[in-house]
């Protein structure tokens, strides 16, 4: 319920305003309590001064296992808990392995305590020292390089490079979790945004763009998986490959004309993502708008080039053409995600009401 108060003047120069009693009672505010004010545009946020305590959350994992347990740990992490207590009447060995794997997949976590019915995880990082800008910047570098290497792995028949791309996807996922954790902390309290030196609107823009970069990395990983299948690598069996081995290597997989066209498409798609991210980070609004519009315009060219490449696949056998078509689609979709980042950059650069 919205309550209104009149601003009064005391002592001739000091503005004062009362606060709702119910809110004060619920938040432990009484006479003599110190409060903090955080200005943000034309708004002023008030919050009680609290001691720096690490937040602890408890989760019953009795019926959780596998992916469900992994997601539960990640959710507690992203929600901002510094100490996560996982409890059950008896924690099984499989659950313990899943918890350890989850801890290793997240930045800054370690197992602090482990008993028969309880596992306690602690975050070692100080959230106020984390940089959402640096995390998104690293995501950009890794995701774009993954897309380039995934296509190179296919066109050169490099199985090791394809496997390396698949492994790097974990790095992007870890960074995305960090970005999500920071962003959610700024939604809970204005102090978090104050600590990292960015407005909540900018944090939202970074989080939205990080999600697009995570999708680019996913498509690069998909290309790497398809590459292993097309090359008939033994490693493909470990990642779900079922396509018969080509007898004559990469030349049998990729006609020269398709090879050149795919590399050009990949270069254009990566340029869209890079240009959009440069627009997102640009301090000058005019520069950001120009770069973002260029990136959005380039997406149409990538889509047209992808359709032209699809025509080259008609002469191949259907099974191989289908897999190569999926690769072309993944590269094209990566450019679409870059276009989404460009849209975010335009919104960030636009005047605020």
Structural descriptors:
four-stranded mixed beta sheet, 353 residues, 8 strands
Describe this structure in words.
- The chain has 353 residues and is of the alpha+beta class.
- 62% of the residues lie in helices and 11% in strands.
- β1 and β2 form a beta hairpin.
- The longest helix is centred in the middle third of the chain and has 32 residues.
- About 5% of the residues have low confidence.
**What's the helix-strand series?**
EEHEEEHEHEEHHHHHHHHH
Strand content: 5-15%
State the distance separating the first and last CA atoms: 25 Å
Structural class: alpha+beta
What percent of residues adopt helix (DSSP H or I)? Answer: 55-70%
Largest sheet: 4 strands, mixed
* Gross morphology: flat
The average pLDDT is 87
Low-confidence stretches: 234-251
Count every beta strand, where a strand is a DSSP E run of 2 or more residues: 8
* Strand order in the sheet with the most strands: 5-6-8-7
How much is the radius of gyration in Å?
Answer: 25 Å
Number of helices: 12
């Amino acid at each position: 319920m919205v309550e209104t108060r009149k601003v009064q003047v005391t002592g001739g120069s000091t503005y004062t305003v009362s606060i709702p009693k119910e809110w004060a009672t619920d938040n432990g505010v009484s006479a003599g309590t110190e409060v903090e004010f955080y200005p943000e545009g034309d708004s002023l946020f008030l919050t009680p001064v609290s001691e720096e305590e690490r937040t602890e959350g408890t989760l019953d994992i009795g019926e959780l296992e596998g992916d469900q347990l992994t997601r539960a740990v990640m959710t507690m992490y992203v929600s901002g808990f510094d100490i996560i207590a996982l409890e059950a009447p008896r924690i099984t060995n499989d659950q313990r392995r899943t918890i350890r794997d989850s801890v290793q997949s997240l930045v800054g976590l370690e197992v602090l305590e482990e008993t028969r019915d309880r596992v306690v995880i602690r975050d070692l990082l100080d959230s106020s020292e984390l940089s959402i800008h640096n995390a998104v910047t690293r995501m950009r570098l890794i995701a774009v390089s993954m897309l380039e290497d995934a296509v190179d792995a296919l066109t050169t028949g490099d199985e090791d490079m394809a496997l390396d791309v698949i492994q790097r996807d974990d790095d992007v996922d870890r960074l995305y979790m960090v970005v999500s954790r920071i962003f959610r902390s700024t939604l809970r309290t204005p102090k978090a945004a104050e600590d990292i030196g960015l407005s909540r609107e900018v944090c939202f823009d970074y989080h939205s763009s990080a999600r697009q970069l995570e999708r680019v990395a996913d498509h690069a990983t998909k290309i790497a998986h398809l590459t292993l299948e097309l090359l008939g690598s033994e490693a493909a069996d470990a990642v779900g490959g079922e396509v018969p081995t080509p007898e004559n290597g990469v030349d049998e997989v990729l006609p020269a004309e398709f090879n050149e066209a795919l590399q050009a498409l990949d270069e254009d798609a990566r340029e869209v993502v890079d240009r959009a991210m440069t627009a997102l980070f640009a301090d000058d609004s005019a520069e950001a708008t120009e770069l973002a519009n260029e990136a959005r315009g380039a997406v149409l060219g990538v889509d047209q080039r992808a359709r032209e490449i699809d025509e080259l696949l008609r002469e191949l056998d259907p099974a191989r053409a289908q897999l190569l078509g999926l690769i072309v689609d993944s590269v094209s979709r990566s450019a679409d995600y870059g276009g989404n980042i460009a849209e975010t950059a335009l919104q960030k650069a636009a005047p605020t009401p």
